[in-house]
């Protein structure tokens, strides 16, 4: 029996055995929740989710009406609410047993059912109970007229929540006339502060938040608690468990965060319950039935791994014939990536709108433009992705659509970091603030669908919003992302962020070095995760499994897959692009001594600015393999002065005479393929009369440098052979 059922059972027994009047009478009363919502907003949907959850009878007045009560979030107003109620409540005024509970809707969540609400109401011994808060608003001069309260209690009336008998409430609401633009809180305050009227209707304030928790100014007072598969709000100051939680005033983001958990939306026992609600399914559809999507891609600064980004966009599992493409590129640097992407895929998409640097469009204008295009094309969704947001899961677009939220971002973070594409909270100036649950969400200790105040990088927007979002990215003195999120918050449109599945990650684009041919090669330190994905051999880690026998083509010569084909090609191209091959002479000004005993035609890593990166590579990727091959030898970190690519070809240098290396161990990575790129070649170890000729691109030979492993480079008879050599620990 869960807690709620047990509780109801207990009440039933009480009624049966004792016939207690005050408890028994609970059963006689009807409870109806009433609220006003002129638009069906995300907030109203959230309110209704909570009333449905607790089987509450809720009636929404005013749908479709023009709101005439002003901007109540920021100034006085709200008289329109009273006038709507005047009309709507007339039908209830004679129902003796009817208890009405009014709350606002956009910023309210219910956390309990009828039994609980009536029980708590009865304890007041009042006909009407108003919620209370710590601010005397809108007329602070009335503060002194309020009855005194104890230090932990709230003294002032808030009209966002009240409960009472229909008859009394109707009388209060119709007691005086009020203009739509007058303040409804002032209206009720004036009645409450009139002692005669207060007594007449036996009005009380919920000073301890037994029923109503207004969160403005009381943020620290409330916390979320969990009991089995239920969540509830707990007021730590008064020890109460309020049933109506109201994010009144300026604390919407904090309230939204609370509301993620309330009404069992997320519980410690069952995780995200709200995630399973209101979802849709599209993956069974035929290609031409898929919703149309505007996929808009933004290149606003030089960013590493852009070609991979584009390839991943192209790999999204979604019919391209249902995708309109929009690209804004602000930096020349990315022209090449985009051109080759378009060459490959452009024709497959439904349409493409491409803005290049030469078009001179600013970021905000481009983002607004995408909204316009989405509207024009009548696309059902807009999927906006920035180049630094790597979408690695091909199902991402389908997955996001199926979660069916108005605005939804996949949570992406920088690998091994807490940096992500959402904020859990904002401060009063609209800037980043860390929420209590931020780290748990980034680290996936809490998994769910989170209503958050800021998202960026990648998000899906429902197409029906486009009219409302016109020009949303432009605001004075504010970056487009801040303008967008601030605009959504102002409009009461929820931004959700999901970490139910890891759909991708973020690339660090700060101060990207763009001076090379293959700039991503140089990202090993700044973006180790992407670097590994792109440049490390997919079977690299197999060699680290202790149950695996290492490959030894010759005695004490070990052979490992280490780098990707992409790495090999890029490194060779980088070297050829520099085109400063040494002449293979003994005199070598690049060396400290100016003399090379066994010279080759080569280029040093230092010459292409990759020396530091390479030492890092040796430490991260080579050392673990060395420790497996030659147990008990640690070089921490590995040192190497000679790191270079050798070029062998006929009519240049085609071989290397037998020699020792000045190293403890040597690594030798094949950068291309025998019988395809060249003929002949290979390495022969004289002591063992053993050669490795069928070298494998991306595989590394590792052998001791001196004494035992006297070796030579065999003749390359045709084509060009490239190898990457390091003398480790000379
Ligand atoms: C969610 O799905 C329902 C049913 O298809 C649809 O009416 C509603 O507009 C969808 N909501 C969003 C935000 O996509
Ligand atoms: C990795 O190993 C698997 C077999 O274990 C093989 O099929 C695959 O081709 C290897 N990958 C590469 C890039 O060689
Ligand atoms: C070897 O160990 C790894 C884990 O280190 C495991 O995944 C793999 O299945 C094992 N292979 C064999 C052949 O036992
Ligand atoms: C070395 O090996 C080759 C073939 O692998 C063989 O023909 C040759 O006789 C060997 N030389 C010696 C000295 O053993």
TrEMBL record:
UniProt GO MF annotations: iron ion binding; L-ascorbic acid binding; procollagen-lysine 5-dioxygenase activity
Gene3D superfamilies: q2cbj1_9rhob like domain (2.60.120.620)
Signal peptide (UniProt feature, chain positions): 1-25
Assigned keywords, A-Z: Dioxygenase, Endoplasmic reticulum, Glycoprotein, Iron, Membrane, Metal-binding, Oxidoreductase, Signal, Vitamin C
Broad class of the protein's primary localization: endoplasmic reticulum
Domain Fe2OG dioxygenase intervals: 634-730
Membrane topology, from the record: Peripheral membrane protein
Catalytic activity: L-lysyl-[collagen] + 2-oxoglutarate + O2 = (5R)-5-hydroxy-L-lysyl-[collagen] + succinate + CO2
Top-level enzyme category: oxidoreductase
One protein family per Pfam: GT_PLOD
Required co-factors: Fe(2+); L-ascorbate
Gene Ontology cellular-component annotations: endoplasmic reticulum membrane; rough endoplasmic reticulum
Protein name: procollagen-lysine 5-dioxygenase
Enzyme Commission number, as recorded: 1.14.11.4
Cellular compartments annotated: Endoplasmic reticulum membrane; Rough endoplasmic reticulum
KW Signal (keyword) present: yes
């Amino acid at each position: 029996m869960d807690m709620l059922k047990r509780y109801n059972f207990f009440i039933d027994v009480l009624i049966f055995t004792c016939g207690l009047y005050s408890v028994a009478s609970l059963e006689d009363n009807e409870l109806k929740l009433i609220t006003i919502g002129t638009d069906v907003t995300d907030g109203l949907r959230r309110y209704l989710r909570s009333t449905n959850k607790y089987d509450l009878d809720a009636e929404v007045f005013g749908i479709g009406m023009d709101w005439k009560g002003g901007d109540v979030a920021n100034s006085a107003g709200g008289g329109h609410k009273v006038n709507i109620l005047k009309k709507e409540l007339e039908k209830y005024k004679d129902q003796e047993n009817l208890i009405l509970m009014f709350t606002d809707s956009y910023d309210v969540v219910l956390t309990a059912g009828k039994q609980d609400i009536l029980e708590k109401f009865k304890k007041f011994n009042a006909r009407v109970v108003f919620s209370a808060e710590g601010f005397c608003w809108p007329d602070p001069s009335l503060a002194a007229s309020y009855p005194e309260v104890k230090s932990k209690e709230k003294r002032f009336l808030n009209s966002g929540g009240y409960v009472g008998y229909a008859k009394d409430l109707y009388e209060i609401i119709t007691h005086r006339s009020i203009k739509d633009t007058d303040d409804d809180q002032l209206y009720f305050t004036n009645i409450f502060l009139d002692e005669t009227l207060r007594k007449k209707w036996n009005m009380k304030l919920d000073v301890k938040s037994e029923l109503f928790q207004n969160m403005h100014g009381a943020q620290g007072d409330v916390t979320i608690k969990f009991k089995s598969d239920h969540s509830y709000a707990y007021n730590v100051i008064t020890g109460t468990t309020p049933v109506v939680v109201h994010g009144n005033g300026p604390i919407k983001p904090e309230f939204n965060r609370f509301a993620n958990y309330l009404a069992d939306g997320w519980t410690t026992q069952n995780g995200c319950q709200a995630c399973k609600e209101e979802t849709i399914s599209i993956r069974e559809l035929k290609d031409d039935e898929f919703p149309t999507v505007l996929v808009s891609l933004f290149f606003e600064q030089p960013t590493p791994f852009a070609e991979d980004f584009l390839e991943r966009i192209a790999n999204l599992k979604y019919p391209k014939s249902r995708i309109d493409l929009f690209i804004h590129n602000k930096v020349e640097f990315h022209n090449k990536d985009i051109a080759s992407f378009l060459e490959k895929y452009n024709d497959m998409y439904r349409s493409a709108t491409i803005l290049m640097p030469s078009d001179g469009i600013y970021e905000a204008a481009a983002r607004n433009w995408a909204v316009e295009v989405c509207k024009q094309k009548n696309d059902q969704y807009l999927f906006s992705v920035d180049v630094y947001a790597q979408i690695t899961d091909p199902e991402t677009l389908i997955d996001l659509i199926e979660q069916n939220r108005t605005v939804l971002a996949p949570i992406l973070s920088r690998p091994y970091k807490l940096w992500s594409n959402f904020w859990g909270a904002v401060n009063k100036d609209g800037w980043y603030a860390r929420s209590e649950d931020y780290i748990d969400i980034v680290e996936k200790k809490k998994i769910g669908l989170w209503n958050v105040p800021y998202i960026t990088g990648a998000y899906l927007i429902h197409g029906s919003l486009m009219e409302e979002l016109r020009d949303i990215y432009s605001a004075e003195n504010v970056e487009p992302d801040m303008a967008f999120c601030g605009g959504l918050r102002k409009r009461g449109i929820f931004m959700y962020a999901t970490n139910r599945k890891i759909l991708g990650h973020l690339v660090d684009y700060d101060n990207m070095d763009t001076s090379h041919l293959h700039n991503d090669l140089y990202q090993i330190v700044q973006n180790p995760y992407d670097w590994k994905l792109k440049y490390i051999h997919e079977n690299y880690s197999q060699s680290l499994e202790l149950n695996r026998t290492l490959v030894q083509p010759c005695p004490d010569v070990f052979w490992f897959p280490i780098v990707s084909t992409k790495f090999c090609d890029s490194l060779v191209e980088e070297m050829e692009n520099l085109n400063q091959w040494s002449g293979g002479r003994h005199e070598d000004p690049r060396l400290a001594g100016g003399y090379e005993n066994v010279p080759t035609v080569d280029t040093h890593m230092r010459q292409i600015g990759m020396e530091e990166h390479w030492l890092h590579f040796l430490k991260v990727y080579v050392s673990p393999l060395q420790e497996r091959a030659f147990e008990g030898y640690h070089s921490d970190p590995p040192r190497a002065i000679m790191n270079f690519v050798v070029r062998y070809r006929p009519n240049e240098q085609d071989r290397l005479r037998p020699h020792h290396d000045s190293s403890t161990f040597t690594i030798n990575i094949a950068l291309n393929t025998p019988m395809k790129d060249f003929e002949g070649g290979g390495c022969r170890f004289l002591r063992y009369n053993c050669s490795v000729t069928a070298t494998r691109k991306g595989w590394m030979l590792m052998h001791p440098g001196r004494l035992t492993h006297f070796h030579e480079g065999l003749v390359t008879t045709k084509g060009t052979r490239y190898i990457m050599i390091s003398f480790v620990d000379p």
